[in-house]
Design goal:
This protein has 21 helices and ten strands. With about 575 residues, it is α/β, with parallel strands linked by helices. It has a six-stranded mixed sheet. Strands 2-1-4-5 form a four-stranded antiparallel sheet, with no helix packed on it. Strand 7, helix 18 and strand 8 form a beta-alpha-beta unit. The longest helix is centred in the middle third of the chain and has 50 residues. The protein starts with 15 loop residues before the first helix and ends with a helix. It binds adenosine-5'-diphosphate. The site of adenosine-5'-diphosphate has 13 residues, from helix 12.
């Protein structure tokens, strides 16, 4: 089973130093609890019970009996550092795995997210990674410490077994130990509860994760991959700090209890000395209490733990090993500012499932053409537009920009030349200013305001008490549909890319937004190659060229007047829209 985890040992490599200290501490703690303790008693008891102690001063006597707490101290401290370090290594490994997982999500093709629900991906990235960490740390902890304890204890037990006589003192010690331990347990539990409170309040990691998953298009269109990874890495670190605070208390509890118990036991010894109890009985008791029970219990649980870990690993690997279909070719050429001529040559496309969605589409769109894509719903308009920023690659033929096959261009350069405005634009839970800035991170305040003015967004932004510093809520929840649309247009103005892809909102916007958006659009399209998935006839009429789609083919191409006169499908679509308006 352990071989399945082998590929992940590489995550441990940077932690080698810590790991060796942790292992060393594990061995020390194991031996101290298994063999050290009974042996200590074996050395101390004869002094107490053989009458030799009569010759000692009270201080010397104290020195002798304190040997036992000292062994416990050694065991407790080594054990503490063993578990703490293993946990620290575990969280670092987890952090690395989780970051790799998240990084992978930034570059996976969009088709991947249509096949996998975001909830499922969330639980893989968080719970399964967590489970894997629990497994790794539990196994790493116990696989060294428990056998060491067991072997040490068994050796002593076998050696001493024949001396056992009575059990009187068992009851005495069993009564003393819990009494001294209860108050610590109580305080410790309270501490742990407070620490875990902090932890549950840190839903930040999940929040950023799920938001990122709902903005897959924006991340690609605006080249936000690095920014997103950074944001996630920071939240992840905060979470880890809180978790380690929790671990610090939690893992200190057991050794603390044992140290106190050891003090209790040592005073029981004093009592034993007073009432002249039998040394061997005492030894047997301690052996029975500490020797073999814990390690056997723990080793028994490891098998189940490994199974849980393997399940989690399978689910993580399903994502980590998904091939990234859309990547830069090795010899990808850089592209600065494109002129914006688009070519589709015999392009065919089908989603993974079935039916071809685009069939043998050939068209040349000269730079600076404002193209409206019209046609019945499901005809392939969005799919056609999505091929331009390479959200998908065609299965046949090729798409070109300025004469170059898109697949030969650097992906980030290609996308830098494109502004995408979707039907339902996604805003990040950040200020309006930062939401606009994603379109061009190097823009100045003046640039941002200029773009917002052009999109008729400046006035409504200033009407908020905090203006551009207003935080918009998750997915822009605090803004109306029309306001979000205008901010999306402001992003496109700011980006000022030679190619604009616009999916018009189908839902009715308030009339003020509607008018503002129409005015802004007229400005925005000037001098750009524009693909508008058009739902409004006003937009359609303003376009220089219209592409009519039907069943995955471009059935007509021309101006409004030409098509209205010569194409039945176009005329019926157009007339129907005009009637409903
Ligand atoms: P339009 O934009 O013209 O309404 P689309 O390009 O969105 O059309 O869709 C074209 C066809 O592809 C439709 O039949 C649609 O059901 C199908 N389709 C769209 N997206 C997917 C997808 N992710 N997986 C499978 N089929 C899809």
């Amino acid at each position: 089973m352990i071989t399945r985890f082998r590929p992940y040992f590489s995550y441990l490599r940077p932690q080698r130093g810590l790991l060796s200290v942790a292992i060393l501490c594990g061995i020390v703690a194991g031996v101290a609890s298994g063999a050290g303790l009974p042996l200590m008693i074996d050395q101390v008891f004869p002094v107490i019970f053989s009458g030799k102690a009569d010759a000692l001063s009270p201080w010397q006597l104290l020195g002798v009996i304190l040997w036992i707490p000292v062994v416990f101290l050694l065991r407790g401290v080594a054990g503490y550092f063993n578990t703490y370090l293993i946990q620290l290594i575990g969280t670092r490994v987890l952090e690395a795995i989780r970051l790799d997982f998240f990084r992978k999500l930034q570059v996976l093709p969009l088709s991947f997210f249509q096949k996998n629900s975001s909830g499922d991906l969330l639980s893989r990235g968080l719970s399964d990674a967590n489970q894997l960490q629990v497994t790794l740390t539990t196994v790493a902890n116990e696989i060294i410490r428990s056998p060491a304890t067991l072997i040490g204890a068994l050796t002593v037990i076998v050696w001493k077994a024949y001396q056992i006589e009575g059990v009187t003192l068992v009851l005495v010690t069993l009564a003393v130990v819990p009494l001294s331990v209860l108050p610590i347990r109580y305080i410790g539990k309270k501490l742990i509860r407070r620490a875990s409170h902090i932890q549950t309040e840190l839903g930040g990691v999940t929040g950023i994760f799920s938001e990122n998953l709902t903005a897959t298009k924006e991340v690609r269109a605006f080249n936000l991959e690095e920014r997103e990874v950074g944001r996630f890495a920071r939240a992840s670190q905060t979470l880890i700090r809180a978790q380690m605070k929790f671990v610090k208390y939690e893992k200190a509890l057991a050794p603390l209890i044992e140290i106190v118990a050891a003090v209790g036991i040592s005073f029981t010894l004093l009592y034993a000395y007073k009432v002249q109890l039998d040394q061997k009985t005492f030894t047997t008791l301690l052996l029975a209490l500490y020797a073999s029970y814990e390690p056997i219990k723990k080793l028994g649980g490891l098998n189940n733990e490994m199974k849980r870990g393997l399940g989690a690993l399978d689910r993580l690997e399903a994502v980590l090993q998904t091939p990234v279909a859309i990547v830069d070719a090795l010899d990808a050429r850089p592209l600065h500012r494109a002129t914006g001529e688009l070519g589709f040559e015999n392009v065919g496309f089908a989603y993974a499932t079935a039916e071809p969605v685009l069939r043998d589409v050939t068209i040349n769109i000269p730079a600076g053409t404002v193209c409206a894509l019209v046609g019945p719903s499901g005809a392939g308009k969005s799919t056609f537009a999505n091929l331009v920023p390479r959200f998908f690659d065609p299965v046949a033929g090729r798409v070109t920009l300025d004469g170059h096959d898109l697949r030969a261009l650097r992906l980030a350069d290609l996308r830098r030349n494109i502004a995408v405005v979707s039907q339902d634009p996604v805003l990040f839970n950040d200020t309006i200013f930062n939401n606009l800035l994603v379109a061009r991170p190097e823009a100045t305040v003046a640039d941002v305001e200029h773009a917002a003015r052009a999109a008729y967004a400046h006035d409504f932004v200033l009407s908020f008490p905090e203006g551009y510093a207003t935080v918009v809520g998750e997915r822009g929840a605090r803004l109306s549909g029309g306001q979000k649309q205008r901010l999306a247009l402001a992003r496109a103005f700011l980006r000022n890319a030679p190619i604009l892809i616009l999916d018009e909102a189908t839902s009715a916007l308030d009339s003020e937004s509607e008018a503002a958006i129409q005015l802004a659009l007229r400005q925005l399209v000037v001098g750009k190659t524009v693909l508008i998935i058009a739902h409004r006839f006003s937009t359609i009429r303003d376009a220089t060229k219209i592409l009519v789609f039907d069943h995955g083919e471009i059935v007509a191409y021309g101006s409004h007047a030409e098509l209205h006169a010569g194409n039945d499908l176009y005329r019926s679509l157009y007339d129907r829209q005009q009637q409903s308006a």
